Amino acid sequence: MVERRSPKPEAEGSSPSAPASTRKNMKNPLKFIQEVKQEAFKVTWPTGKETLQGTLMVVAMAIVAALFFLLLDQILKFFLEMLLKVSF
Fold first, then answer.
1. pTM for this prediction
2. Is residue 77 a part of any domain in this protein?
3. Are the CB atoms for 33 and 27 separated by under 8 Å?
4. pLDDT exceeds cutoff 60 at 39
5. Could you tell me the pLDDT band of residue 28, with boundaries at 50, 70 and 90?
6. How many DSSP H helices and E strands does the chain contain?
7. What is the dihedral of CA 34, 37, 43, 46, to 10 degrees?
């Protein structure tokens, strides 16, 4: 037999503001913190070498972007100064 839900919003269980699982699984804060700690241990954290490599890549890309925009700014400044000298 197929379960059918009522399309009426006022009917219980049709479209709750929060999922039923969230409302049923409310636990005390200490249990929640313990579960968070357990999940944190499951995370695969990057090694020190991976972190350093990522940091160096971000710094290198920031330097490349800064140099690009510096060069672009100087080129636009040059053309703008030429244009202003010609117009006066």
1. 0.53
2. yes
3. no
4. yes
5. confident
6. 3, 0
7. 180
